[in-house]
Every structure is written in structure tokens, then in C-alpha cells.
Design a protein that fits this description.
The protein is about 20% helix and about 30% strand. By secondary structure, the protein is of the alpha+beta class. A five-stranded antiparallel sheet has the order 2-1-5-4-3. Strands 8-7-6-9 form a four-stranded mixed sheet. The chain is globular, with a radius of gyration of 17 Å.
């Protein structure tokens, strides 16, 4: 996978997908994501803070700006460094384009445990452990004392570094 794209209309409904979208969905065990055309964009963005950042970015893009930023799109056994470009199309439509920059195998498969207030940045995938934001590979070590805890959902947000890069508020 080197390139995937999707377009949304002014109503935030996905109108088209392109590049290697289908291949990416199938390779990542998500056959239900092959046919997302006609779906509302916000169904696929986890976490209130993450949605707010995307809303801010869409306002900028619909005013005519182009937005680019790096992000991670990891799979269970792989770390993917990617770049996204969001650009305006005609009549309030928007195109999201993602480019694969590098991959490497995940050396440690992260295990997320029930820890009060566990948050993960939606862009870089770092996990907040106290006041520190650690990549999942290192967060696993920090969470080792909680190995017997039950699994729980992770809240998605944005770390201060990614908020600064995107020029948005680090909503929690």
C-alpha cells in the first residue's frame, strides 16, 4: 500500500475512494470498510477530541487551505509512518490523500490494560502515561505493572506535540 484517498461532499458524506483503498481494507482484516461510499465521515473517527481536530481542519480546508501532516496508521504487527494531505475540491467537497512513507515490523505487540484515564494520540499513536506521551512500544513497558488488569477501550485524543504541528488546541 502506497496511496489511498477518499472524498467527502459538503455534507461530510464519503462520495468516492481511490488508490489502494480496497486492498488496504482487506489486508487489514476490515472487509466492511471496502464499501464506505455513502457513509458519514464521522462514523469512522474515534474520540471527541479527534473529531474536533478534524472539524477544525475541515473548516480551514473549505476556506481554501491545504493541510498536510504526518501520522501513524499501525496494524497489529506493523508500524506505518504515513503522510496525509487534505485539500479542497469544488463546491465544499474535500479530498483526503494518505501516502505510505515507511513501515517496520512491530517488535512488541502492545497490550492495553484497564488504567484510569488511558489516552492515545490519534495522529502519532503515543499513549499518555502520567504527564509523558510514549509510543506504544514503550508504553507497554510502563504499563507492565498492570498486566493482570482487564482490557478496556482507549480514549483517542491528541498529544501536545501533534496539536502544535496541526495548530489546534490539545483538546482532551
Amino acid at each position: 500500500m502506497h496511496y489511498i484517498s477518499y472524498d467527502i461532499g459538503p455534507d461530510d458524506i464519503i462520495t468516492a475512494v481511490g488508490g489502494e483503498w480496497e486492498l488496504f481494507a482487506l489486508e487489514n482484516g476490515a472487509p466492511d470498510l471496502v464499501s464506505v461510499t455513502g457513509s458519514y465521515l464521522w462514523e469512522f473517527i474515534a474520540g471527541l477530541a479527534t473529531r474536533e481536530v478534524y472539524r477544525e481542519l475541515l473548516v480551514r480546508v473549505r476556506r481554501g487551505d491545504e493541510v498536510r501532516f504526518p501520522f501513524r496508521c499501525d496494524g497489529p504487527d506493523i508500524i506505518r509512518e504515513m503522510s496525509m494531505m487534505i485539500r479542497p475540491l469544488e463546491s465544499g467537497a474535500v479530498r483526503f490523500e494518505s501516502f505510505l512513507l515507511a513501515t517496520k515490523p512491530r517488535m512488541v505487540r502492545p497490550r492495553m490494560h484497564a488504567v484510569e484515564g488511558l489516552r492515545m494520540c490519534s495522529w502519532c499513536k503515543r499513549v499518555a502515561i502520567g504527564d509523558e506521551w510514549l509510543y506504544p512500544e514503550f508504553a507497554v513497558e510502563a504499563l507492565a505493572p498492570f498486566e493482570g488488569a482487564a482490557d478496556t477501550a482507549i480514549a483517542h485524543g491528541i498529544c501536545p506535540g501533534c496539536a502544535a504541528m496541526l495548530s489546534v488546541s490539545p483538546a482532551r
